[in-house]
Amino acid sequence: MRLDRWMDLGGVSCWRLGGRSVHAGSTWQTRVSGEVWLWLNHSGEGVIWGAEDRMFLRPGMYAIFGEDSEEKWRWTRLPGDHVAEVVVISRAWMARKLGESSRLVHPRFAEWLQGGGKMAFAGLMSGPERELLEGLQGMTGRDPGESLRVEARVLEWAAVRLFRTGRSDAGAGFCHAIRKRSDPVARALGVLEARLSEPMDLQRLGKECGVSPTHLSRMVKQRTGLNLREHLRKIRIAHACELLSASGSTVTEVALEVGYQSLSHFAKAFREETGKSPGEWAKMS
Length: 285
Prior knowledge:
Blueprint: E1 3-8, E2 12-21, E3 25-32, E4 35-43, E5 46-49, E6 54-57, E7 61-67, E8 71-77, E9 80-90, H1 91-98, H2 107-115, E10 119-124, H3 127-137, H4 146-162, H5 172-176, H6 184-194, H7 202-209, H8 213-224, H9 228-246, H10 251-257, H11 263-274, H12 278-284
Helix pairs in contact: 3-4, 6-7, 6-9, 7-8, 9-11, 9-12
């Protein structure tokens, strides 16, 4: 099962994932720079993850992520049937299409268009995503007129998602998730990723991020809905999934490598994050 590109318009490209997976494991990875990846997940379950973010996708969900510093992103699949349409939109193409109208889009997205940054958001598909998904599914890239249809559908999606400013509006979710690289929250999550096998030291973390530990904890919770320990658990378990899928390590060895000294604590955390035991996950690989 592969992620195949079926159209490239020089600023917008369309990709398709389809097939059945018997085992869990990584299907795709790439470095993302100066572009937005819009992942429309029709069926199948898996995790999209970068250095600082984890997004678990179920059928009927979408994810949007972008970066301007060559960060590597991966898709780790679970067993089952997988169908997804993926649209990659360059920042330069979007800025060119919007022109002067860029001042009318969501302020966070306007900042991203001008100076880059990072976004990572996942949620349930609503009308704009479902219409884009259904429109793309009928295309193959062989019809000469499809290039215009693809561009029109992408711009129609953008018109709904980007030209909003309120927190309750259609684009508020991922637009409010856009952040600059200097953001203390992004910095904190990056440090947790780099030191996932170490106990979390909140005092040290706050000092490295340039804010007080209390303020950092509050910022992370308000921004992401999860506290720092919950993020660390997600990072550890996501890495454990990779190790169990790709190596011959035992469950005990993996638990120790991702920072768990207690096998029972590791098993509990693993099941709460994935719905399966470490042993069950290893057998699927």
